[in-house]
């Protein structure tokens, strides 16, 4: 059987849990905005790196094409 101390402890524990849950809602808003800002920054950085890599690949492809054309002209 439950005695008075156990019932009081269970009541305090449930009250404490609900208070913590309310505090988490406030912290979640700040956390969400921080995550969103970090995600935006990371996506912009990834886009910049991707653009740089694509430009490098295009320059390399153009260099190869020029080299092939030059070799073909020398062969004639």
Describe this structure in words.
It contains 1 helix and no strands. The longest helix has 72 residues, at 4-75. It is an all-alpha fold and 76 residues long.
Question: Radius of gyration, rounded?
Answer: 32 Å
User: N-to-C SSE series?
Assistant: H
**Sheet with most strands:** none
Structural class: mainly alpha
Q: What proportion of the residues form beta strands (DSSP E)?
A: under 5%
Figure out the total of helices: 1
Helix content: over 70%
Outline type = rod-shaped
What average pLDDT do the residues reach? 79
Helix and strand topology:
Blueprint: H1 4-75
List the keywords:
single chain; 76 residues; mainly alpha; 1 helix; 95% helix; rod-shaped
Short description:
With 76 residues, this protein is an all-alpha fold.
């Amino acid at each position: 059987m439950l005695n008075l101390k156990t019932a009081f402890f269970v009541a305090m524990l449930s009250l404490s849990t609900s208070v913590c849950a309310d505090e988490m809602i406030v912290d979640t808003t700040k956390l969400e905005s921080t995550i969103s800002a970090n995600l935006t920054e990371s996506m912009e950085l990834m886009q910049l790196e991707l653009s740089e890599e694509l430009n490098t690949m295009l320059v390399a492809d153009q260099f190869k094409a020029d080299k092939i054309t030059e070799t073909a002209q020398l062969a004639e």
